Amino acid sequence: MLERFPAARVDYVRPKRVKVTVSPDTIKQAALFVRDELGFDHIGTVSGTDYIEKGEMEVIYFVGSVSKADQADLQVCLAERVKRDALAVPSLVEVWLGAEYHERETYEMLGIDFQGHPDLRKLLLPEDWSDIPPLRKDYTSPGR
Fold it and tell me: Which of 57, 87, 75, 79 shows the shortest CA–CA distance to 8?
């Protein structure tokens, strides 16, 4: 199954949840496989983690199925890692339309550029925000 993605890493996080980590250049193909061939048709959220000590950021798409009753309690966490100094990954809005606002939030809070996103602009922060993204580990809150 994952031979299509030779660098993929699979971790069994807990019962009924699996994390599949692929490279950014294969994330879209992996997402299409997870959606079309495995039936995971619903995106729950998109999250990001700053691994500042490794110089990387991770983007995770949490996907499930609403159309297949036998998969209703299963979740696939589709992840990719990218260098902090090259924060560009493909958008998965074309795969799961529901990723649109989640990617905008991750862009705004961590500074990850989702290439191909139809409307990558601020969602939560003030329009005049000029500091680094607030969920990065090197962000210092004013007054601290």
Answer: 79
